[in-house]
Known about the structure:
Order of helices and strands: EEEEEEEEEEEEHEEEEEEEH
Mean pLDDT: 77
Low-confidence stretches: 1-59, 254-282
Strand content: 35-45%
Radius of gyration: 22 Å
Largest sheet: 7 strands, mixed
Number of helices: 2
Shape: elongated
Amino acid sequence: MTRRDIATISIPPPPARPSPCRSDRGRVAGARWVLSLHRLWVCCLWVLIATPVNTCADSNGCDFFGSGLKQDGRGIQPVYLSCSSGRVEWQYPRAGLRVILRSPTKGKDFRACIKGAEKFEGARVYLEGHRSLLPLFAADDGRPRDLVRCFTSYKGEAALYVEAEQGTDGLKKQVAGFEYDLKAMQEGAIYDPMEECRPCTEEELLHLYCSGDFVARGSILAVTDKPRLDLTSLTIRASKIFQQTYPVFGHGHAHPHRTSAERGTQRDAEDEEENDISFSSLVEEGSYIGKVVMPMQCGARWGDGEFLVMGVMRLGQPLMRCAPRYEEWLALTRRAQSQAQCILES
Length: 346
């Protein structure tokens, strides 16, 4: 398989379901910003103070659900999360949150990505740098809300500063929410975007077949680049679905899709819209239609024949990790059946 057919990406499992939290974490260190809002883009100065806070996170430390109404409007509330994925939901934003993401493997660096909620409002998210705050996400930053924002940790930790916007109506319910996802990096490694595009090894194929969120046999109908989202969308006609934990593939007649009339790649400068066209003439009886995505830098292209499309859900998107040609998969099942953790079907 070549990169011009289908590339692969390496991504962690889907986010955990959020659950209510009911306990306090006690007294922890807080922080207070002493610079005005318009200078937060340039530099910041932390003044550490000891203050009682109510850090409300669920029992596994993956998610945070809190309300600014419980804050006094002055202190910065610290939140510590140490899972590979989770969610932050802050209602009635007041003052600020300092969300510290830590690797589940102590001290190991990671590549982190966040995705803002569809109705995110009332706050802005910054990445805490060495001497400055770097704007990461805001509802009015001019970029698509679906755009995933990524960064790399330092010494196994990354801190996000979530600042409540000034002058908002205190009685109006606003919710600043986002999902996060962490992917561990090899010790001493420097992040390489093309690492997400390399072909899967046989071990990775066997593991993903048994543990992936979707596995299907199918062919490519269309490929569409979405530059503003840094993603490529692939429309797949699946003749057989081995498993799917999310409804990635559905009956073609019930799920009309919008795409290019031609097989191949459509590069849309706006990347938001795809041409309306029905796949009724392309969908065979008993087959399914679904869309999966992958990083645009992988340069995915339309390829003839059938593939085994495998992937996981990440930040609400069906991301494809591996797609060997189906003939390659059949050969692997014959020689590696005893090595797999589940029964390999064909």
